Amino acid sequence: MYQIDFNFYQAEARKLINERRSFEICNIAVADMLAVSQDLENYMESQYLKCRIYTKNRIVTGLSGFLNPAWGILSLVSIAAHNLVTYDPDYEIGRDIANNRIEVIWKK
After folding, report:
1. Mean pLDDT, 10 residues at a time, over the chain (108 residues)?
2. How many domains does the chain have?
3. Is position 79 within any domain?
């Protein structure tokens, strides 16, 4: 997968999106992840592409149901609803907070 450093992501990411390629943006501070994923989403939508943004390893929140069943069920229901609303995306944008990166995957 093509890797882009956070400091140079904007122009390169747009080029790769136009080419319908998958890539990964590395070295992103957690504080910048939301803004970067929103920037990617806005650009994709301006190109008439659909995307799904998610946080990698979010299923772990569903497993919290072992500690608090109400929280676990609510988490799993919200994940399922999100997947239905963003059905059949052109791209998936996965925020990997643990590894300070965002994976952008072409799905079609």
Report:
1. 94 97 96 94 95 76 56 55 68 91 95
2. 1
3. no
